[in-house]
Design goal:
This protein has one domain. It is about 30% helix and about 40% strand. It has two helices and eight strands, in the order ββαβββββαβ. A four-stranded mixed β-sheet has the order 3-6-7-8, with helices on one face. A two-stranded antiparallel ribbon has the order 1-2. Strands 4-5 form a two-stranded antiparallel sheet. Strand 7, helix 2 and strand 8 form a beta-alpha-beta unit. The chain is globular and about 40 Å long.
Length: about 100
């Protein structure tokens, strides 16, 4: 059996396979919040394109996005913050005018 690069163990919840147990656990928490009408419009793996001066650089894929109290929230579950992740996060926040919330495991 192959292990992931950072020894994360996959989790399957509601028939959806997540990259890590922590991400799966956070999804379960968010589903409960959605059912309780605390959050709405839960999305998995929302994508944000990084385009600078008309040149496509990359796509950043967050773990979740949802609305809470009328505000849009973009969330990433992180065990390891790689240099590439840190750079993409800064680019997306600057270009899209959003704040990415990090949930650490």
């Amino acid at each position: 059996m192959r292990h992931s690069k950072y020894n994360a163990q996959k989790a399957t919840i509601d028939g959806i396979t997540f990259a890590s147990q922590a991400e799966g656990k956070r999804y379960a928490e968010l589903r409960l919040l959605e059912k309780a009408n605390v959050i709405s419009d839960l999305k998995l793996q929302p994508e944000f394109k990084v385009v600078i001066n008309g040149v496509y650089i990359c796509t950043y894929r967050a773990d979740f996005s949802y609305n809470e109290s009328g505000k849009s929230v973009v969330e990433d579950v992180k065990g390891m913050k790689t240099p590439v992740y840190r750079l993409k996060k800064k680019l997306v926040e600057a270009l899209h005018g959003i704040k990415i919330t990090e949930v650490t495991k």
